[in-house]
Amino acid sequence: MTKSELIARLAEQNPTLYHRDIERLVNTVF
After folding, report:
1. How far apart are CA 3 and CA 27, in angstroms?
2. Element at 13 (helix H, strand E)
3. Radius of gyration over every alpha carbon of the chain, rounded to an integer in angstroms
4. Domain coordinates of the chain in residue numbers?
5. CA–CA separation, 6 vs 10, rounded Å?
């Protein structure tokens, strides 16, 4: 799974989060 796939999946599961916040979360983890 790539970062972009992970971001897309998290965005689907958490529609209340902003896309940039999800990107920030993923970048923090990696």
Report:
1. 8
2. helix 3-13
3. 8
4. 1-30
5. 6
